[in-house]
Amino acid sequence: MTQEEKYMKAAIREAKKAWALGEVPIGCVIVYEDKIIGRGYNRRMVDHSALAHAEIAAIKKACKRMGDWRLEECELYVTLEPCPMCAGAIVQARIPKVYIGSMNPKAGCAGSVLNLLDEKRFNHQVETEEGLLGEECSMMLKEFFKELREKRKKKKEEKAGE
Which one of 29, 46, 101, 105 is CB 3.0 to 4.6 Å from 137, fit for a cystine? Predict the structure, then answer.
């Protein structure tokens, strides 16, 4: 297992924490000098906050740990391609490299819908590597949404039977 795979596995473990809460399983870790300095997972539902994304949580923790808003020597690992908000936060934090598990054709801003991470008009661009443990990340999301559909169907059937 490569170092990159090791860190993406850590992001996957974070995503599973979100899944356990009934959240969309997205996880993120930030690495500095071969140490994880920030972790996060999706908590939008439980925190009642549109801002409670995995990347935002990990960036907050990493900035606090580093004592700086600039994360210029860090790498970010995330199980799903960042949304516009998270891509913006990555650029603002000056993170130089992002490893992405699965791309997000509906809302991804590292190339799927837009590419905010490599926007030349910004003062910082981010190098990306897509598909790191991509199959595992994609399957986790597919399984989550399959379970969610089954739960909703069962609930609907129970309600109809009352």
Answer: 101
Output the known binding site for Zn(2+): 53, 83, 86
| Catalytic member of 55, 81, 129, 130 | 55
pLDDT at 156 over 90: no
Q: Is the pTM of this model over 0.90?
A: yes
Return binding residues: 53, 83, 86
Q: Judge whether 158 counts as a catalytic residue.
A: no
Q: 109: domain CATH number? A: 3.40.140.10
Sheet with 127-130, side-by-side order of all strands: 35-41, 27-32, 75-80, 97-102, 127-130
What is the residue range of 84's domain?
A: 3-161
SS3 101: strand
The structural domain count of the chain equals: 1
Helix (H/G/I), strand (E/B), else coil: 28: strand
